[in-house]
Amino acid sequence: MKSLLASLILCAAALTLYGQEPVADSLQNTTGGGLEAPAPQAAEADSRALWDEANTAYLRSDFHTASRIYRQILERGEHSSKLYYNLGNASFKEEKLGEAILYYHRALRLNPADEDARYNLSVAENRTIDRIETIPEFFLKTWMRSVRSLLSGTAWTILSLILLTLTLGAVLFYLLSQRLNLRKAGFYTTLCALLLFLVCTAFAAADRSEQISRNKAVVLSTSVPVKSSPDKAATDLFVLHEGTTLDVGEQMGDWSEITLADGKKGWLESRHIEVI
Question: In terms of pTM, does the model score above 0.85?
C-alpha cells in the first residue's frame, strides 16, 4: 500500500507545473458543495469549445486571452478544480500573483488531493512580499489535516458509507454466529469498522465545512494599509501586499476585520481582498 501511494505521489510530481502549460484535462462539472447544477447538453458542448479555445490560447502563450475565456466558463456557472487550476496558471503567467493564489486555493477547495495545485500554490506564495510566520499548531492536528487531504470530501463520504455497511454486516455476523470465536471476530470487526466510519465521516464533514466557509481571503491589491478601526482616518497598523492569505471576520460597511496567521488583527477595505 505504501509503495502504491509513493508511486502515485511521484506521478503527480512529474506532472507538476512551474511556469509550464496547464494540464489540458477535459472540463468536468463538480457537484460537491452545492456549487452548481448539471448543464444542458448544448451548454456543455459550448463550454467544452470554450475550454479547448482557452487551452489553445495558453499554449500559444496568449495568457490574457486564456484567462478571459476561463472566466467566461466560470460566468456560465461551470466549476471544477482543473478550471481553477488552469486559471491560476494563466494568472501566474500574467504576473497577477494575488489572483493566481486565489484560484489555486479554490482548486484545492474542490480537490484537496490535487498535488499539482498544491505545488504551484507554494511556488506562487514564495513570490509574495509578506513573510508571515504561522503560529505553531498541535502536531496531531497537522497530521490529521495531511491525512484528510489525501482524498476529496466525496471520496471520504463514499468510504464512510462502505464502512457503515461493513459495520452493519459485522453486527449481523456477531448476532447470528453460534461459535464463540466467530462472535469475537464479529465483535472486534464491528468496533474497528465503526471507528473508521466515524473518522471518515468526520473528515467528510470537515471537508464540507471548509468548502462552504467564507472566512478566508486573498489580498489582490499591490499593497493595502491595515487600520486599527474601520475608518480611513484610523491609525495604520501595518501594510499587506498582493497574494497574502488571511482570515476574514466581522464586516462593517465597506470594511472587513482580518486576522493573519501570526495572530495580528486589523481592518482593511473589502475591495482590496477576495474571499476564497
Answer: no
